[in-house]
Design a protein that fits this description.
Helices cover 23% and strands 23% of the residues. It is α+β, with helices and mostly antiparallel strands and 302 residues long. The protein has a single domain, classed as Oxidoreductase, molybdopterin-binding domain (Sulfite Oxidase, Chain A, domain 2). Strands 1, 4, 5, 8, 9, 10, 12 and 13 form an eight-stranded mixed beta sheet that branches. The radius of gyration is 18 Å and the shape is globular. The N terminus is likely disordered. The site of ligand MTE has 15 residues, from loops.
Length: 302
């Protein structure tokens, strides 16, 4: 990537929105001039056309049911979550299982900026400038064993800090999973920041998954546990309604949700009268990820 910085973000790393946009333009110019190739280059070139949403859009319109099911509930309630100190347990089929402090993870990982489309299964979308690191780097640090085929993730469960878990909307804690090759794909990141600032609690502080070619519910927030396994792990929305939410949940305009079409989306921030925009196959990341699903029937394995 053209822009990298390491370790914990400090006050100096905060980029005002206007300066941020300027830097994007510079980066777009660099990418075009250098003729970058490969996955990172392709993603970078695709990124240059994206206009990120404002921090207000990104942090005031959320899904984080542990803090309530309304779109403003997470922004109103997530300040109750204690995010430091924070420990992530890495377990299962790894050479170095253990409890990793968030501070030690931030020290070991290289934080970079990724501007990604984000598409919720509810058919709204945003463009989000994440800061984070590749999940592959964290898994490599833990040492993935050869028999591992899936990665399971778990969100914190803190009834004292999470008013929403009083309600049985989902079977808490929130859990998610990926196939190992999906987890190791360079597009899959752990986000720890947005716009160069620490990630707001309502967006999944201190560390949340981002899998940009899948519906947003796969991008599990405030992770406390990562387990490498040899079998497909259970996932919250699939357990709640297996007919509507599959394990894969790849963005696919041709496969409708049983109750609505997925062929178009409402871009948040576009205003009440904005035209819906067409949803792209794999949310626009087809070149980077289509090969992961070769030979699979995407209608049957949705
Ligand atoms: N993770 C947890 N733990 N709890 C949730 O309710 N909601 C998911 C996902 N991750 C959710 C979660 C859904 S449905 C979406 S669309 C995204 O988070 C929303 O992310 P955002 O609020 O940062 O846009």
């Amino acid at each position: 990537m053209a822009h990298r910085w390491t370790n914990t973000l400090t006050q100096q790393d905060i980029t005002p929105y206007s300066a941020f946009l300027n830097r994007r333009q510079v980066m777009a110019g660099l990418a075009a001039g250098a003729g970058l190739a490969g996955v990172a280059g392709t993603a970078q070139a695709a990124e240059s056309a994206l206009e990120p949403n404002t921090l207000e859009d990104i942090s005031q319109y959320n899904n984080y049911y542990e803090f309530g099911t309304g779109k403003n509930d997470p922004a109103a309630n997530a300040h109750m979550l204690t995010t430091a100190p924070w420990t992530v347990t890495i377990a299962g089929m790894v050479d170095r299982p253990g409890d990793y402090s968030m501070a030690s993870i931030m020290k070991a990982m290289t934080i970079e900026e990724r501007i990604y489309r984000f598409r919720c299964v509810e058919a709204w979308s945003m463009v989000i400038p994440w800061n984070g690191f590749e999940l592959a780097d964290l898994l490599t640090m833990a040492g993935v064993q050869s028999g591992a085929r899936y990665v399971a993730f778990e969100t914190a469960f803190r009834p004292d800090e999470m008013p929403g878990v009083r309600y049985p909307v989902l079977d808490w804690p929130y859990v998610e999973g990926l196939r190992l090759d999906e987890a190791m794909n360079p597009l899959t990141i752990m986000a720890t920041g947005i716009y160069g600032k620490p990630i707001p609690n309502q967006n999944g502080a201190p560390m949340r998954l981002v899998v940009p070619w899948k519906y947003g519910f796969k991008s599990i927030k405030s992770i406390v546990r990562i387990t490498l396994t040899d079998s497909e792990p259970p996932t919250s929305w699939n357990k709640a309604n297996p007919r509507e939410y599959g394990f894969y949940s790849n963005v696919n305009p041709e496969v409708s949700h049983p109750r609505w079409s997925q062929s178009s989306e409402r871009a948040i921030g576009g205003g009440l009268f904005a035209k819906r925009q067409p949803t792209l196959m794999f949310n626009g990341y087809e070149q980077e990820v289509a090969q992961l699903y070769e030979g699979m029937d995407l209608k049957a394995q949705f």
